[in-house]
């Protein structure tokens, strides 16, 4: 058995799962609903893509959780891992095969949701959608998905129980999205940094604070979507201008930097999970 075989078999099994159908269906339905809600509010579909990016930033990891957190921990907890490891394949092929299959399902979900949204906006918005912008948005969103699929599969590889995998996945989501971005008024990375700097009598510049915030894959995703709006800035939409109107001179707003952050989170997390899984006693 090879990585390809592991990925193929897992993909075949996963596509029959209600969780997989739910991920694809829910993502597509909500993205299209956002476009439907705004078709009479904005003339340009790219403005709605801006709102979709915030939806994905906040909820896409949660949508991906049922697809990924049991990818390996479920096999270990249910005993199926003994069969998989009894076949002539390495632990590395098994772990990375799981990543490929779950990422393949995610690719289908992203492509379908953005594709349907493009067709919907083509017939409902005053101005026709730009296919290049939609393709850019889909590719950036897929890279964002890779970061969290890698994190969640990595967490799954580190645990042998379903409950631990679930706690690990939602713990990772809490730290990397609401805590890191600063949604919570008292428990947030921003407040911790502020408290620490006050204790040591130092200050952190605004750019340094934003750079630290951008080191989360979720925040880096928002910055990376700036490439979608190149050529239309400034726009008639104030909220879009306030986020992207200035030239991206700071490193944390450069696309290459944010793409690297997202890729690194997914790759490093998966590798850490593989190292843990390789050393585990599978019983």
Automatic annotation (TrEMBL):
Which segments cross the bilayer?
18-37, 49-72, 103-128, 134-155, 167-187, 255-277
Q: Does the keyword Oxidoreductase apply?
A: no
Q: Name one Pfam family in it.
A: ABC2_membrane_2
A GO term from the CC aspect? plasma membrane
Superkingdom of the source species: Archaea
Instruction: Reply yes or no: does the keyword Membrane apply.
Output: yes
Protein keywords: Membrane, Transmembrane, Transmembrane helix
**Alphabetical list of PANTHER family matching this protein:** ABC TRANSPORTER PERMEASE
This protein's name: ABC transporter permease
